[in-house]
Amino acid sequence: MGAGGSADAMKFSDVLILVGIGILCAGFIIHGWVGNIELDDEENQTYLKTAHLLNGDKLTIDLESITDSEGKIVIFQDSVEIEQIDFQLSSGEDYSAPTFTSKEYDKYSVEITISSGSVEADVDINRTLMLDFIIYPIGAAILLFGLQKRRNEMDVESIDAELESKE
Q1: What is the radius of gyration, based on Cα positions, of the chain?
Q2: C-alpha closest to that of 71 among 131, 35, 114
């Protein structure tokens, strides 16, 4: 510690509690950090999102038109075009492309291209096995183990006290 001070060593239970809380917070950030991307015909004409999908995973694509706009959505499977959807939207109109379901494990890409106007795009992946949610039980287990270990340490800990006698 700086300035010649000293600090007690960090207890293992404190480390487990810190790691458990960190894992849970990271999970919330990973799953909660979803943002729409704004595309327009001047600056951001194309948006590309790539993901490895398992059999049965679903891609949902939602568009919200800011101005009158048109463009296309193309889905690729390992660089081979498998589906193309053209769209034309009025200002303020919402559009949900038909949900795409993967047939096998592979690398899939979604490319949204705007030829005129501007839209907000949201591409979401719905997993069938929910493997990305395994982080929550792992973080909770580590946190609970750390709390239990701390409770055991507090029960065993000796109490230091100074006894003064009255004279």
Answers
A1: 27
A2: 114
